[in-house]
Amino acid sequence: MKKIIIINGPNLNLLGKREPGIYGNDSFDTFLEEVRAQFTNIELHYFQSNIEGELISKIQEVGFNYDGIVLNAAAYTHTSVGIGDAIKAIQSPVVEVHISNVYARESFRHQSYIAPNAAGIIAGFGLHSYILAIQSFLT
Ligand code: DQA
Question: Distance, CA 57 to ligand 1 centroid (Å)?
Answer without folding.
Answer: 21
